[in-house]
């Protein structure tokens, strides 16, 4: 999350509107800002991002705010090839421009993950399997995407003081980065306070952290399942059953990721066993709403 703040003059230049319009939006609360001791309006980047997403304002000079042009009119699915091409050559500016412009246009993080970033990574994996994507191109893809997700995080508002807590982890020997990071960003965007418990953690350690931190939601992203599936299912089911109570409600485990196949899915007894971020967003709503 960002600490960058901008003046009405900078925002006016970026949006191609008058400075007095921006001051009016600030004063009416449409564009939340802080005031300095000297009475100057300072608008944080997440406020500007939210305003642009909700009002559909076009950016005349996005670079003033470190933003990108929002020229994308097409559906997310139509940009998968372009993103894949940018990722495998390590073209970080193109990758960032693509993802962030869709975000600015109002797409949710869940939609970006499910319909653009996940499918582009699948193409990387398929290409690797077919011998058309080299190992170093797969590595580059991960690097540029992680840089892009880091940038995206700057645009999200900080959680409220009373935000519910969620934990995110990956199990033993699973060091995938993009899936747990997208889970984190998707929950942050929904107003959760999110702690990354860690990647490659034994389930017993995840249970210990859950007992200690008492989150309302514990998310496990599973791309590589190294332990045997029966042991994984038994241990995770026991953890979900013994999960701590928080204000009279049991902490819920949400599990997902490409290594959760139909067999494992059918045997897991967790709050959510999902295959998309949208399912996670739907699930967290009931927890968050009652918080
Ligand atoms: C990048 C990658 C790697 C990188 C990871 C590096 C890094 N820094 O992250 C490296 C090179 C290390 C790697 C290694 C290996 N990989 Co690999 N890898 C991939 C690849 C290309 C992309 C994974 C990714 O980041 N996807 C991006 C995310 C956003 O998409 P996603 O995983 O689909 O997640 C979506 C959903 O699953 C869901 N979701 C995810 N988490 C959660 C959590 C919850 C709670 C919910 C509700 C939903 C949810 O939401 C996301 C958005 O829609 C995939 C290809 C593929 N088809 O997925 C193979 C893939 C995952 N790898 C595979 C394999 C086999 C391996 C290796 C065993 C290869 C080898 N022989 O060494 C090793 C294992 C290493 C290990 N133990 O960790 C297989 C796994 C098959 C399986 N599941 O059993 C895949 C599927 C490729 C394939 N088709 O064979 N890999």
UniProtKB/TrEMBL annotation:
It comes from Botrimarina mediterranea. GO terms for molecular function: DNA binding. It comes from the Bacteria. It holds the Pfam family HTH_17. SUPFAM superfamilies: Putative DNA-binding domain. This is Helix-turn-helix domain protein. Residues 6-54 form the Helix-turn-helix domain. Coiled coil: none annotated. NCBIfam families: excise (TIGR01764). Residues 81-150 form the B12-binding N-terminal domain. The lineage of its organism: Bacteria, Pseudomonadati, Planctomycetota, Planctomycetia, Pirellulales.
């Amino acid at each position: 999350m960002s600490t960058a703040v901008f003046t009405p003059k900078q925002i006016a230049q970026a949006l191609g509107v008058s400075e007095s319009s921006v001051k009016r939006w600030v004063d009416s609360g449409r564009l939340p800002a802080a005031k300095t001791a000297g009475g100057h309006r300072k608008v944080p980047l997440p406020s500007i991002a939210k305003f642009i997403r909700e009002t559909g304002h076009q950016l005349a000079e996005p670079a003033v705010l470190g933003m990108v042009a929002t020229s994308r009119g097409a559906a997310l699915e139509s940009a998968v090839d372009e993103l894949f091409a940018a990722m495998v050559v390590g073209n970080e500016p193109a990758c960032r421009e693509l993802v962030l412009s869709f975000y600015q246009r109002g797409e949710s993080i869940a939609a970006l993950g499910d319909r653009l970033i996940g499918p582009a990574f699948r193409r990387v994996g398929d290409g690797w399997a077919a011998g058309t994507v080299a190992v170093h191109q797969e590595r580059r893809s991960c690097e540029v995407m992680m840089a892009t997700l880091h940038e995206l995080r700057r645009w999200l508002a900080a959680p409220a003081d009373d935000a519910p807590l969620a934990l995110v982890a990956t199990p033993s020997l699973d060091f995938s980065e993009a899936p747990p990071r997208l889970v984190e960003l998707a929950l942050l965007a929904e107003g959760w306070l999110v702690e990354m418990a860690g990647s490659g953690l034994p389930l017993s350690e995840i249970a210990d952290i859950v007992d200690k931190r008492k989150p309302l939601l514990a998310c496990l992203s599973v791309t590589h399942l190294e332990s045997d599936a029966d042991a994984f299912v038994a241990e995770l089911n026991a953890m979900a059953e013994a999960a701590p109570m928080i204000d009279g409600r049991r902490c819920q485990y949400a599990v997902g990721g490409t290594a959760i196949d139909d067999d494992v899915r059918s045997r897991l007894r967790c709050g959510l066993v999902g295959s998309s971020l949208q399912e996670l967003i739907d699930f967290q709503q009931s927890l968050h709403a009652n918080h």
